[in-house]
Batch of 2 targets.
Target 1
Amino acid sequence: MKKTVIVLSIALLTGVMGNTAYAHTNYTIDKTTINGLHTANRYAEVKDIIITEPVAGLFEKNKTIYLKADRLDFEDGATVEVTKGNIRIKEIEADRDILKLTIEKASSEASEIKISNIKFYLDGSLADGTYDLDLITEESEEYANNVFGGFYEQSTQKGNHVADSVILIKDFVTISTTPRDKQQTSVIDRNAVSITVTEQYPQENSGYLQNEIIMVPLRAVVQNSYNTDAVVQWDDETKSVVVRLGQRICSMKIGDNVVNVNGVITPMTAAPEIKNGRIFIPVQDLAYILGISENKIQWDSETMTVTLN
């Protein structure tokens, strides 16, 4: 899957906020796909963040990178790994909504840093919606406007022209608080569909098991369920698919574990993926798209067949 690469210009802060020093630098960050989370899970893990130096030595010794989550608290346990180059990371530390990475030694070879095991605590006060990942920085408002070109936003301090943070990854996570069974609505009449499931690479119009999740072919199931009443549209440029079932319109993107059903964004069991030129999604998520309650999913472990009634 092609990743969106964001090129930013930032000021890295030292670990002592009261004695701030700045090292103006450029770096790139691979934008993660959307992380769909549900407040039913108090502790939720999101996808890795990759930070890359375009040239060696841009992250200076003893400098700290501050990543700030929008209204979310990081849990302890995040890990950092140097996957390219020879930069050394002294530590990674979670402090409520701030994730701090301290540089132990600057690189002599352009390096890549991977942040993994990123987890949030989701309390009951969070509302449905999207939440950003910010980079704490200080730059002129005009500079931020020129760099981010309107696609990214920045908050500004009142009374001066300094941006105290910029949005590093917009819509970093999507939060859903409403149970799926209360979101589901009936759609047009449908046929029961049975899909054979294999444990390895999927055969024609069959599903497969992946990490104990049943993945089923989207188009085959939708069209067999609703005959000519359903429309499945694929956009190769954006790697997204739209399913139209009467007044019910559903959209999702390969690699993003959220689905939009009539404007309601809901986390998926797993992200859609392409196998053998076809789109596969978890059977529970396809049932939700089709307006089928999960208790209508029947699994026969002997015949390796899943049926949507």
Target 2
Amino acid sequence: MSPEHSDSIEMFKGKPLRPKVNHNAILIVSILGANIVALLAFSRYCYNPESPVARDEPEKRDLKAATTAVSADSISTSFHHLMLLMNDSRKDMRSVFSELIRMRQEVQELRERTEVLTARIAELTEKEDSKSVSITERVKEVLEQMAEEEDANNPWMQWAKGQIPKELQEYTALRKLPLGWNPALGSGTNVASVGHGCAYSKDDLAKYMEYEVGKECPDDEPLQQKLILKGCEPLPRRRCFARKPTNSTEPVPWPQSMWTVPDDSNILWNAYHCKSFQCLNERAKLKVFEDCLDCFDLDGREKHRWVDNAGSLDFLITEVLKLKPRGTIRIGLDIGGGTGSFAARMREHNVTIVTSTLNLAGPFNNFIAQRGLLPLFLTISQRLPFFDNTLDLVHSMHVLSNWIPNETLEFLLYDIDRVLRPGGLFWVDHFFCVESQLDLYVSMIDKLGYTRHRWHVGKKLDRGPEFNERYISALLEKPRMEV
């Protein structure tokens, strides 16, 4: 149906249709009708023998007769125009009524079709009525089962079903800002942050949140690290005071502090098997496999890294800095930087490096801080706490390797790209994998689209040649946006 017909039907449904009236024709008819009546009356009066006009002189009668004839001609002409107008109006009215009749027929056809469909639907509904109940119940059961399975895989739903510790409720409660809506924040409330992985460790989290407000925090450093390694990162804040080492002393002054082992009294040793740095350094002599066995020995290998060329896989800091204009490498990040020796060497070149690390079998974070460097207690799963395009350099040694799930590694590489500024350097230092995985990881790194300044692949033999492991060392530059 055409739009104009649709509009006409809507008008027909709302109120009765009326033919369009030609008001000009009505006015002319009224005026001419009055004139005709007056002239007819005047003519009868004039031709009446008894009337005064009939007794007038012949000249007057002739004049009056002529006047009457002229008036009659005018009336005849006007009447002719009137009839033409009325004929046009009749044609318009016939057209309107014809269109109205056609639209009424279309409406009737639509009503008949609707009645047929309604009857068919009622018939089908009646036939399936007995089956519909059982089908509905079955669908409901399936949906409930799917919801339960989804909830089982959703930590938030599992968390909501359990009892949340009181202090965690206090921390995560939605709170209104004292001054109301803040346009800069785009909100009128404050929301506390906590890692979604905390919902997977409800029991450990409940234990972590058990403390006396305003008192000393529990001695639970291993529990904290256990939680963040399970995705409970960031941990919720607590309203208790961090435990302090007894008999602590002032740190060694900088720059001597960078290559001096700190005093044992400045460390809380409760969480570790070793209770001194001497114990930690002696682990290298034992046949044990632990991460960074000799990292705390600042007179051993740590002192020679990145300053002495031990092979094609080992890049020197001085060579790396020469790739960029002097003074343009200023700030950076070392992912999984152990005890902070890379940051110490870079600081000797006026470059400030933040070192992310964990406390795996040793006080890595405290050791870095005692050296006068900046530690960051952070796992590889946490989004890097830096704004986009801000760092001049990102470095990682041994950490970025095949022990990380491929999807997790891909997210991490893109996050490194996010924080690295255009023209910044990505230093891949001894990335390890087995030989059959080389194509996979090379392709993953190449997806970044970085310029290769240096790229070397070598054998990793510390566990034996039978493992067929390989190292990748690369120096890459993030491209700039081309206009």
